[in-house]
Design brief:
By secondary structure, the protein is mostly helical. Helix content is 72%, strand content 0%. It has nine helices and no strands.
């Protein structure tokens, strides 16, 4: 949540605390396998700003390209800081190895798709998000759309409950932004 808050405040409030992300990555990579989420978020914000650069008016293009460059630099430094762990570069492959292990995906409960036959907060937040977006007077920008689609896809598929928790937070945050 802190990672997302730093990126979001940079994107929408102009508060540049991106210098904290490599330090957070150093902690995250050594404490939890979900660190890959940080790189996914960096990719989403980079991609959203790249889309803004490509499809915006001339006066906004320079601003969007500046954000792209800044996020790319932070992503590279975060990647380098992620290498500072006991397993070295192989830690970067860990999440992909885990998700591609058929036995783990089929037998570990937290890696299974959500069961919508029981009441889940995720289902209610997902429906709330779709509802708020449907009646909202403002449309999503590229970053917001990519966040909603990416995390909806990840949470509905075979992904760790850690990611699902972040999806709930992301849905609630996006819904609250567009409710205002």
């Amino acid at each position: 949540m802190v990672w997302y808050a730093i990126l979001d405040s940079y994107q929408y409030k102009g508060k540049d605390r991106l210098y904290l992300l490599p330090f957070l990555m150093l902690l995250w990579v050594n404490l939890h396998g979900g660190f890959i989420t940080g790189f996914i978020l960096l990719g989403v914000y980079f991609g959203g700003n790249l889309i803004a650069f490509l499809f915006s008016a001339e006066d906004r293009r320079r601003f969007a390209m500046g954000k792209c460059k800044r996020i790319a630099i932070v992503a590279l430094v975060s990647l380098l800081s992620a290498l500072l762990n006991p397993r070295g570069y192989s830690i970067l492959l860990f999440p992909f190895r885990m998700l591609s292990n058929q036995f783990v995906m089929e037998n570990v409960l937290e890696f299974r798709s959500p069961n919508f036959h029981v009441a889940l907060p995720f289902l209610y937040l997902f429906v709330l998000t779709v509802g708020v977006l449907a009646v909202s007077r403002t449309s999503l920008n590229a970053v917001e759309l990519m966040l909603v689609l990416l995390f909806a896809y990840m949470s509905l598929g075979e992904i760790h409950s850690y990611i699902r928790h972040h999806c709930n937070t992301g849905f609630a945050t996006t819904a609250s932004i567009h409710a205002a």
